[in-house]
Specification:
By secondary structure, the chain is α/β, with parallel strands linked by helices. The chain contains 7 helices and 11 strands. The strands form 3 sheets. It has a 7-stranded mixed beta sheet with strand order 5-4-3-6-7-11-10, sandwiched between helices. A two-stranded antiparallel sheet has the order 1-2. Strand 3, helix 4 and strand 4 form a beta-alpha-beta unit. Helix 3 runs parallel beside helix 4. The longest helix has 15 residues. The radius of gyration is 17 Å and the shape is globular. The N terminus is likely disordered.
C-alpha cells in the first residue's frame, strides 16, 4: 500500500481507470481473485451484510422476497449478487466493467441487466429504461472513483431509488468499504485505488445530498486486513 506523499497532490487525483481495469483484467474470475487471496472471509462478509440489511428491514419475510429490484455496483463475478442479493430481491442488475467477470451471470435466474461499464460511466436511465431500485449495493469498488466521480455516482444512485405511495424515498444505498486508519486517504498504486477514511466518506455523502441512516463496522475479519464499515444512505429530506 503506497501512502500519499507530503505534497499537495490529493490521493484520488492519482487514480487511473485504465490502470485499475488493467489490474482487474489480470485477476482470476473466482472468489479468491475477488477477495485478494482471502476467500475465507466471504462467508463472514455475507453474514455481516445480511444482518445489516435485516436491521434496515430488508430481506425475506415469510419466505417472500422483500426487494423488487436491486443493483450491485462493481459486482465483479457476482459474489454478493449470488450469495446475498438474489436471496431477497426478485431482480438484481449489475454494473461491472470487466466482462469476463460477469460472463457466468448471463442468463442466471433473477439477474436482470448487466452493464459492462465503469461506475463513473453508468447511467440508470440509459436506453430509456427507467428502473427504480429498492437497494443499491456498493462494496469494495468505490476506491476506483475520484471524489468528484463518487459524488456524481452517488447522486445518480439517489435519483434511481424507489419511492413509496406518498412520494417519500423507500430505496436505500449501501456502501461497504475498507477504512483507512492512518488519518488520511491512501493511494494504492497496485490497483490504482484509494482507501478512504471515515471522515472522507462522510464529507462525500454530504456533498452528494445523502444522510446516513445506519452505519456499522464489519466484525470477524482477520486483523491484518483494513477495518470495513457499512453505511446505509438515503437522500436528505426537504
Amino acid at each position: 500500500m503506497a501512502a500519499p506523499g507530503d505534497g499537495a497532490e490529493k490521493p484520488d487525483s492519482l487514480i487511473s481507470a485504465d490502470d485499475g481495469r488493467k489490474y482487474w483484467a489480470g485477476i482470476d474470475a473466482d472468489v479468491n481473485g475477488m477477495l485478494g487471496g482471502y476467500p475465507a472471509v466471504s462467508r463472514v462478509d455475507l453474514r455481516g451484510s445480511r444482518s445489516f440489511l435485516a436491521k434496515l428491514g430488508l430481506g425475506r419475510t415469510g419466505g417472500v422476497k422483500g426487494i423488487r429490484r436491486a443493483l450491485e455496483g462493481g459486482a465483479g463475478i457476482g459474489r454478493i449478487t449470488q450469495g446475498l442479493l438474489l436471496e431477497m430481491a426478485e431482480t438484481v442488475d449489475v454494473v461491472e466493467p470487466i466482462a469476463k467477470f460477469t460472463a457466468a451471470l448471463e442468463g442466471l435466474p433473477g439477474v436482470g441487466r448487466i452493464y459492462n461499464v465503469g461506475l463513473e460511466e453508468w447511467r440508470p436511465d440509459d436506453e430509456s429504461v427507467d428502473y427504480e431500485y429498492d437497494l443499491i449495493w456498493n462494496q469494495w469498488c468505490l476506491g476506483h472513483l475520484t471524489d468528484q466521480q463518487l459524488v456524481a455516482y452517488l447522486r445518480r444512485c439517489s435519483g434511481a431509488l424507489s419511492v413509496d405511495d406518498n412520494g417519500k424515498t423507500k430505496g436505500v444505498i449501501v456502501v461497504k468499504e475498507n477504512m483507512s486508519t492512518f488519518g488520511r486517504d491512501l493511494f494504492d498504486e497496485v490497483d490504482s485505488s484509494v482507501t478512504r477514511q471515515d471522515e472522507s466518506f462522510r464529507r462525500i455523502f454530504e456533498e452528494a445530498g445523502l444522510r446516513i441512516i445506519k452505519t456499522e463496522i464489519q466484525h470477524g475479519f482477520p486483523h491484518e486486513l483494513y477495518p470495513v464499515r457499512m453505511y446505509a444512505l438515503k437522500p436528505k429530506e426537504g
